[in-house]
Design brief:
With 481 residues, this protein is of the alpha+beta class. The chain has a four-stranded antiparallel beta sheet, with no helix packed on it. A four-stranded antiparallel beta sheet has the order 10-9-13-14. A hairpin with a 5-residue loop joins β1 and β2. α1 packs antiparallel against α3, α1 runs parallel beside α6 and α4 packs antiparallel against α5. The chain is globular, with a radius of gyration of 23 Å. The protein starts with 50 loop residues before the first strand and ends with a strand. The relative contact order is 0.16.
């Protein structure tokens, strides 16, 4: 396979985000429920199925549903041998000693206007190919992500009618923008395929949880969150700096997509000062649950699939009083980690409510008078035991090497923060959402974020978060804001 590739540039005149706002509901509630009904504590192209073209001109695979066959291979792919059960924490790199107290270059410049240092700056010809097993498995995961996004963005355009989009506040211009984002995924998939070579994974068949336009858009803002964060977590560990360069140029686009889907969901587009990076196994755990079939001999991945952590009172983004969300998990569409909030609630919907601070129709920006979560909120958990079959052809198995869960890890922005877990039954427990700040008024916990149960409150930072993997009991996605 040729190592060459084409980077296509396109100029898009951004359309308006949505159609004119739907008319306000006839009876505007006089009040929006109590401040909280939640217990709280104050605290310091598809293979195997043809693509169809619908009357509206959009294309999608003809089948989306569960896998019904028998897997012929089980488990993550392995190398010739495994050298250790985990990677131990090491001292600081002894060569990491540079510190500039002068504010000017300390070493000779190799060329005019060129400070000494940097990687890949010596004039050698770039090679845009993966350069290690770590690179291959990471970019292959990224390609699995690009393939599902390509299919997903098209699927809703085909599945829902123009009338359903209009009711959801998304007009033709918004649909055109989503179609453009699907086209972006085609380019991203081509790029990653070229950097992997002949064993690059192919597109699969997928099983989605949504039944309405709002659930589709909500699902996309969650899926692009783990797609984006899953890359930020490994990109600076790649052996190939050239691959990292091109990957950064594609994942910056994904970040914009996630922001747009949040706007279409009636959420604030930006709610943190820093985006969070995740290890590959976190992203693969969330992604694999939505893949049904893959073509024969599709390249398999080495990453871990963690057991699912259900957040029983994860805030329903479709409520004007999100803390009235049911406490039993019934307001999540299904039982997979990133399933969206149910949109067809019978009372308390914010979807067509044109009241500042409470409406949640598509908009450039939204501020919620009652937040989706808050420090001190009692968060209810239920988690699965390992050994469940998941992923393509049900051929991967959830696994954990951790002991009994003792803590809840909250991964957001520059921090991984812990709170104590109280176990109340068989794989059931709770914690209280912790409070803390990154800098100034920037609260640590916000947005769409990863949470996990752990057996140890291990200190990790954004560059070594994967050291926590052996201690993770179950993994979930929290809708904090």
């Amino acid at each position: 396979m040729s190592n060459s590739f084409v980077i296509a540039a396109a100029l898009l005149l951004a359309p308006a985000l949505g159609a004119p706002a739907p008319a306000p509901q006839v009876t505007v509630p006089a009040s929006f429920g109590p401040d909280s009904q939640v217990s709280a504590m104050v605290q310091p192209s598809t293979t195997g199925y043809r693509v169809e073209v619908l009357e509206n001109g959009y294309t999608s695979a003809t089948y989306h549903g569960p896998y019904t066959g028998t897997p012929t291979t089980i488990g993550a792919v392995n190398g010739p041998t495994t050298l250790a059960s985990s990677i131990a924490t090491q001292p600081l790199n002894p060569t990491a000693t540079y510190y500039n107290t002068e504010g000017v270059p300390l070493n000779p410049l190799p060329a005019p206007y060129t400070p000494a240092g940097g990687l890949g700056t010596n004039g050698s010809l770039p090679r845009y190919m993966v350069n290690s097993d770590f690179d291959f498995e990471s970019i292959a995961l990224g390609l699995y992500q690009e393939w599902i996004e390509l299919d997903l963005f098209h699927d809703g355009l085909v599945r829902f009618t123009d009338e359903e989009f209009t009711v959801a506040g998304l007009g033709p211009e918004a649909r055109s923008l989503i179609e453009f984002m699907a086209d972006q995924e085609s380019g991203h998939a081509t790029l990653l395929t070229n950097m992997l070579g002949e064993r690059a994974p192919k597109q699969c068949v997928y099983n989605y949880p949504y039944t309405t336009v709002r659930e589709w858009v909500d699902f996309m803002q969650r899926l692009t969150r783990f797609g984006e964060s899953g890359v930020w977590g490994f990109i600076n560990h790649l052996d190939s700096r050239e691959v990292g360069q091109l990957l950064a140029q594609s994942i910056a686009t994904e970040a914009r997509q996630q922001q747009i889907f949040r706007q279409m969901s009636g959420l604030t587009p930006m709610d943190v000062w820093f985006e969070n990076g995740w290890p590959q196994s976190w992203a693969w755990t969330m992604l694999a649950q939505y893949i049904s079939y893959c073509p024969e001999n599709t390249t398999r991945l080495a990453w871990q699939n963690f057991p699912t952590l259900h957040i029983l009172n994860n805030a329903n983004i479709n409520r004007y009083s999100p803390n009235d969300t049911a406490q039993d998990g019934s307001e999540t569409v299904g039982s997979r980690i990133t399933d969206p909030s149910r949109s067809n609630i019978t009372a308390g919907s914010c979807q067509n409510l044109n009241v500042t601070g409470y409406g949640c129709g598509p908009a450039i920006a939204r501020n919620k008078s009652e937040p989706l979560s808050f420090p001190g909120k009692k968060v209810l958990f239920q988690w699965e035991a390992p050994g469940q079959t998941v992923g393509p052809n049900n051929s991967y198995v959830t696994a954990t090497s951790a002991g009994a869960p003792k803590f809840v890890g909250w991964s957001q922005q520059l921090n991984l923060t812990y709170s104590p877990l109280t176990v109340t039954g068989n794989n059931i427990g709770y914690t209280y959402q912790p409070e803390g700040y990154v800098y100034d008024s920037d609260g640590i916990i916000n947005g769409t974020m990863a949470v996990m149960l752990t057996d140890l409150d291990l200190y990790v930072t954004p560059f070594n978060t994967s050291l926590l993997n052996p201690h993770i009991v179950a993994l979930g996605l929290y809708q904090a804001g």
